[in-house]
Design a protein that fits this description.
The protein is α/β, with parallel strands linked by helices. It has helices at about 5, 65-70, 100-120, 130-140, 165-175, 200-205, 205-220, 230-245, 270-280, 300-320; strands at about 20-25, 30-35, 45-50, 75-80, 125-130, 150-155, 255-260, 280-285. About 35% of the residues lie in helices and about 15% in strands. It is globular, with a radius of gyration of 18 Å.
């Protein structure tokens, strides 16, 4: 095993070989990004991976996974979504996550993808977590991006709860109608309408990885984000319902690996399972009580199983391209 592979990854430092910069959208909005140059395996690059985090997230939370992909020979890029982390805000304050419509993010995704793909070696892999997973899946379903394969970690394809999506959507529309859509939809935690016993219990079973996020928030205060807005909730319901329209997922012929856990307290595992069944080349890796929402930031045992599944999937994809 190489010296690089044996070197422990520091989750609380930007790797010396990674470069942080900004990409400028068509309307001039600056979106933060980070790039790894990519190692070579046998003299030939394995390809390129573009990763997007979830709602309220930042790419610092995923440095460990991104660095692992880099060490495996991939050219790696990650970026914020507009209005999150170091890419500005779209709401009334610095902590409430708002967007006028998820189509705004899809437009950014399309433009970023076009520029990134032209500058990186194939195969081109698109990967994302939670809300990011929803957005990139919608992006490929709407023919806005054309990756060679996709890896989705706990994609936000439905909210957890017994309320039917149509009823939840109607309630969110009402809340937007009777007040400012930019106002927070829930208290300072990660689950709409419910105050959990602890935020960590929703996200990861690994104490140290959970503390990494707070460390980065202290180091970079601009990363702090709390609840989503009622506008975000309403537009998310609308987008998720559209994504499950008859025939849309069935039209995606790209290989898609989905990772989900039945223990997820934020996004619906049932919706993830339905998507995996409807995607012609969909594959699902199921986790249970051992895993929380942030599968790529969970305990070593959970991460190792997820990493193995992703590596095997990417090996097959890379060999086919």
């Amino acid at each position: 095993m190489s010296e690089t592979a044996l070197e422990q990854i520091n989750r609380r430092a930007i790797p010396v070989h990674a470069t942080e910069s900004f990409w400028t959208a068509q309307d001039g909005h600056k979106i933060r990004r980070i790039d790894w140059p990519g190692l070579e395996t046998g003299g030939t690059p394995r390809g390129s991976i573009l990763f997007f985090p979830g709602r309220g997230d930042n790419y610092e939370k995923y440095l460990e996974t991104l660095e692992e992909w880099h060490r495996a020979g991939w050219r790696v890029t990650a970026a914020d979504w507009r209005g999150q982390a170091g890419s500005g805000r779209l709401g009334n304050d610095a902590v409430t996550g708002h967007v006028d419509d998820l189509a705004t993010w899809i437009d950014d995704l399309q433009s970023f993808w076009t520029d990134w793909k032209a500058a990186t070696p194939r195969p081109h892999i698109l990967s994302a977590h939670s809300m990011g997973g929803h957005l990139v899946l919608r992006g490929i379903a709407e023919r806005k991006v054309d990756p060679d394969a996709m890896v989705l970690s706990a994609p936000m394809l439905g909210f957890v709860g017994s309320i039917p999506s149509a009823i939840g959507h109607l309630a969110a529309k009402l809340m937007c109608a009777i007040g400012d859509p930019k106002r927070p939809a829930w208290k300072w935690n990660e689950k709409p309408g419910v105050v959990p016993a602890g935020r960590q219990a929703l996200l990861t079973g690994d104490d140290d990885r959970y503390e990494d996020e707070q460390w980065w928030r202290n180091e970079r205060p601009e990363l702090v984000m709390g609840p989503g807005s009622w506008g975000w909730v309403e537009r998310s319901y609308a987008s998720m319902r559209c994504l499950f329209a008859p025939g849309l997922l069935e039209s995606v012929d790209t290989s898609v690996l989905l990772l989900g856990t039945s223990n997820d307290k934020l996004v619906s595992m049932r919706a993830i399972e339905e998507a995996a069944e409807r995607l012609p080349a969909g594959e699902l890796v199921r986790f249970g009580e051992e895993a929380q929402h942030e599968i790529l930031r969970d305990t070593d045992a959970v991460r190792e199983r997820a990493k193995t599944a992703i590596d095997e999937f990417l090996d097959r994809v890379a060999l086919q391209k």
